[in-house]
Amino acid sequence: MTQDRRNRAWYGKLDKDGFIHRSWMKNQGYPDHVFDGRPVIGICNTWSEFTPCNSGLRELADYVKRGVWEAGGFPVEFPVMSTGETQMKPTAMLFRNLLSMDVEECIRAYGMDGVVLLGGCDKTTPGQIMGAASVDLPTIVVSAGPMLNGKWQGRDIGSGTDVWKFSEAVRAGEMSLADFMAAESGMSRSRGVCMTMGTASTMSSLVEAMGLCLPMNGTLPAVDARRQALAHLSGRRIVAMVNEDLRLSKVLTRAAFENAILANAAVGGSTNAVVHLLAIAGRVGVDLSLADFELGSDVPLLVNCMPSGKYLMEDFCYAGGMPAVLKELAPLLRPSLTVTGTDISAYAEGATCWNRDVIRPFAEPLKPAAGIRVLRGNLAPEGAIVKPSAATPELLEHEGPAHVFDSIEDLKANIDRDDLPVTPETVLVLKGCGPKGYPGMPEVGNMPIPAALVRRGVRDMIRVSDARMSGTAFGTVILHVSPEAQAGGPLALVRTGDRVRVSAARGELALLVDDAELARRRAAWRPDPPAYDRGYAKLYVDHVLQAHRGADLDFLVGKDTRPVTRESH
Q: Can you tell me the mean pLDDT for 530-557?
């Protein structure tokens, strides 16, 4: 198969072009024989000190290289944009699609036969997979891994989840500012992604359920030596995948996406998985829609991790990790090829659960029917979502008056007013935070509870927006309302005092205003002027799809596997 390898178009030619490609690589000390046609493996690295979640990836890349060399391949590391969720403004989601473009064009332009994706923080994993799917080479994922459990005052604390709780406790006068600040240093004790079941840990877990990585990739702590060994083994495996021509499209099938939806429900995964899976499916050509997430609506919650439970990712790992969960889900899983060359069922072979309080048996779940619920109605014609496992059950069937915030600035300026006219029955509505409106669809959907209600002990109420929320967050939060307000969706027409009805059981999100009144409001409505008029942000606003289509850019949907034939010399 050597003559068929992609890298020969770069390194196999005995002419001026081949001379240039080989010669410049040799200035790094590579000898002649590494250009003998062996598989060239690209190591796509999102390491960055501005992305603390991924700060261990530079070292992890060396272990991947060991495995590639051992298997007879030629590893070449290359950098791509890194999207640090905790550091980037206005939101890392604005740049997920830009990362995917970076990944796609690097894979296409360089002479590699297969690629290892090194990512971790929320948007890096989906962005990398989206880009790789659009080129369709043999691909394997090695995740950064979660941080060690947070520790403070003798107990475990979880990134994100406890931040929200502590912040509300300070607002309620139940926690001192000094204690709040002291908890900061104990929260993040090692490199790695959030150790709660936030979006980063959700995506690494779903990558495992989809068969895009080796078993245990989803949960091994970032600083655990076994993650380094897994990286080494992944390097070996990608060389074999090139020899087998096991391309990404052979793994990313409809069945793999369905398994991800089932697994997301079982682990209490992030709502952000919805937009990411939809976007990845659009790249690989799988017909996945928002309605398909109902496949997981009756799946019970098996993993007792924050924010839906009490434990953290380190505990989940030691209890058996995703193989133990997949074993519980075995009767539901669809047959699906994995990067190992075997069916997904092989990941669960020999799996054992070592702590039944962390990973519950299917028949004795933490919560029943915990998967993402899709809501529709005249307030969300193209859909919205809610995460029952993180919600207050009584609020999942609710009707109440709306209090509207027209922007995030409006919310921040008014949410702590003592005279804010709200009650626990009020439905908080936030506009202008969708893909176009913010832009980038930020994680602000879990709006703070109004200060006046916090002081009365209220800790949850219905919140509706076109935004997202952090996977570490909790509450009865209705998200991804589509179409968004800035695109002219009905959310733009809601006024304070309107009644809103929510029924998770019926899948309903309704604005109880008659059609004639809504038509009058629509006639008077005008979108806000664009926030950006240049650069990538303008490109994004001009081309981003709505949340129910994954918020990808319209011209990036699909893939292009044509070979690069033109030389630059």
A: 95
